# Entry
Amino acid sequence: MRTIISLPLAGLFVFLAGFNPWIMLTGRGRSPRSRRLLTHAHRICGYTFIALFAIFCYFMLLRVRGSSDELSPRIILHMALAFALAPLLLAKVIVVRYQKAAWGVLIALGLSIFVTAFTLVTLNVSVHYLRNAAPHKVPFSISLRVVAAVIIAAIVALLTRHRQTKSTANTANVSAKEPPDRESTNQLEL
Ligand code: HEM
# Structure
C-alpha cells in the first residue's frame, strides 16, 4: 500500500482507537439522547476500526509473503502488536455482548486496544520519518520553541483542570454506578 494512502488510514486507525475510550470515559453526554447517539458513534467507530484492522492485516501479510530472509526485529514487533489486537478485539466484542455489566473489564480491554494500536502505528511512522530526516544539527531556536510549547501546553492543562474537576467528579460517579447505557442494553437483548 502506498504511503499517501496508508498514512491517513493509519492516522484514522489510531484516532478511532483513542476516540472510543474517550466517548466511554467522558460520560457519553448529559441527556439520554446524546448518550444514545454517542453509544451509536462508539459502535460505528469500533466496527470501522475492526474493518481497517482486517484490511491492514491482509496487506501486511501480502508484503511479507514468500520472503526468504529472517524478518527484522522491528517488523516482528510490529506484527506481534498487530496479532495481539485480534484476541483483544474478539474479547472486547464478546464481553460487550455477554458480560456488559463488567465495566472494569471493558475499560481494561478498550485501553489495551488503544495502547496497542497507538504503539503499532507510531513505531513504524516514527522510524519512517526519522530515517528520512536530515542528519544535520537542529538549530537551538527550534529546540527552544519545542520546550516553550511543551511548557505552555502543561500550563494550559493545569489551568483547565480546575474547571473540569466538577464535571469529572460527576462522570466518575455515573461511570461507577451505571456501566453501560441501559437503553442500548435492552436493544441488544431484543
Ligand atoms: C474505555 C474503553 C472502552 C469501553 C469502556 C467500552 C465500552 C463499550 C460498551 C459499554 C459497549 C456497548 C455499547 C452499546 O450499548 O451498544 C461497547 C461496544 C463496542 N465497542 Fe467499546 N469500549 C471501549 C473501547 C473500545 C475500543 C478501543 C474499541 C475498538 C476500537 C471498541 C469497540 C467496540 C465495538 C466494536 C462495540 C460494538 C460491539 C457489539 O455490540 O457488537 N470499544 N463498548
Remarks:
- The two ends are 41 Å apart (CA to CA).
